[in-house]
Amino acid sequence: MEKETDRDTGPGRGFRPHRVVVLALDGLLPFELGIPQRIFGRARDGRKRRLYEVVTCSVRPPGPVETDADFAILVENGPEALATADTVVVPASYELGPVHEEGVLTPELAAALALIRPGTRLVAICTGGYVLAAAGYLDGRPATTHWASAEHFQRLFPKVRVDADVLFIDDGDVLTSAGVAAGIDLCVHIVRRDHGTAVANEVARRTVVPPYRDGGQAQYIERPVPDPQQSSTTNARAWALGRLQEPIQLRDMAEQESMSVRTFTRRFREEVGISPGQWLTRQRVERARHLLESTDLSVDRVARDAGFGTAQSMRQHLQAALGVTPTAYRHTFRAGGRARDASGAFHGADAAR
């Protein structure tokens, strides 16, 4: 059997996986530390090559790092690994000391972060955002963190535009997420941003997680699990997903659950965190993305099949959701048309078209 390799030795010589360096700090949460390896480590291209190389490092020389559990982990790389990163991920920690209490870096942490090359993409999961904020990376930028820490985070870092009502925020070269599972959503989003829906969906399928939860979805939903004595809106959502290409009215969805429009709208928001109209738009944007990436259908046909009706309507919605036009999006994710820098962000003409 041919050995899998991450280095291309054929005609496409020069392939190099995107290097993700995860910074393990004392007091870290093992679950969140494992998210980058689990998500990025599963991403493959059409030739089964790993698209990411994931490395874990400490702010100290190689050795044990304490966790919030009853065990430590052995980290085999020191802070010098940060200088090799294309993306740096900072998971949550419960022992941030002056970073959490005063908003300032320890000398050890400041020295480690100083090794990061300019232009490196920065990602924080949950309270890992405190580290980026204390280093000044979030000044003047939108960011999020766990909803329970958001008020304290904003007081400590008044220059940061904190939004506690979202799962994650993508601000180009700096991305932040809410707590725990939202870190999975953010990492899957990054894979989708870097390599398209098909690769991200395969990663999600292998990891057995939802392939898409929009960053703008609410962190905290009043009743995420419906009362067993009350009806849910699950059937209506499944019904709508099966006919996104058709006009769907709110009353049509309400009828699937035998509810009044008012009751259905309230129940839907309680369960999903957004309105039925917002949810429909997001599903149609996802359908359009998939069709633009995986088919040669015209933009007009994609707009019809995704339920937008017209190319102009689809263009407006994709521009609002992704910051690019359908043509630019397709060009980016089709073979030979990628327009990304080392951080994986859009740049050049594709970013503006």
Describe the protein's topology.
Elements: E1 18-23, H1 30-40, E2 52-57, E3 63-66, E4 72-75, E5 87-90, H2 98-101, H3 107-113, E6 121-124, H4 129-134, E7 142-143, H5 150-156, E8 161-162, E9 168-170, E10 174-177, H6 181-195, H7 197-207, H8 234-241, H9 250-256, H10 261-272, H11 276-294, H12 299-306, H13 311-322, H14 326-333, H15 349-352
Parallel strand pairs: 1-2, 1-5, 5-6, 6-10, 7-8
Antiparallel strand pairs: 3-4, 9-10
Helix pairs in contact: 1-6, 6-7, 8-9, 9-10, 11-12, 11-13, 11-14, 12-13
Describe the structure.
The structure is a single chain. This protein has 353 residues and is α/β, with parallel strands linked by helices. The protein has 15 helices and ten strands. The strands form three sheets. A six-stranded mixed beta sheet has the order 2-1-5-6-10-9. A two-stranded antiparallel sheet has the order 3-4. Strand 7, helix 5 and strand 8 form a beta-alpha-beta unit. Helix 8 crosses helix 9, helix 9 packs across helix 10 and helix 11 crosses helix 14. The longest helix is centred in the C-terminal third of the chain and has 19 residues. The protein is globular and about 60 Å long.
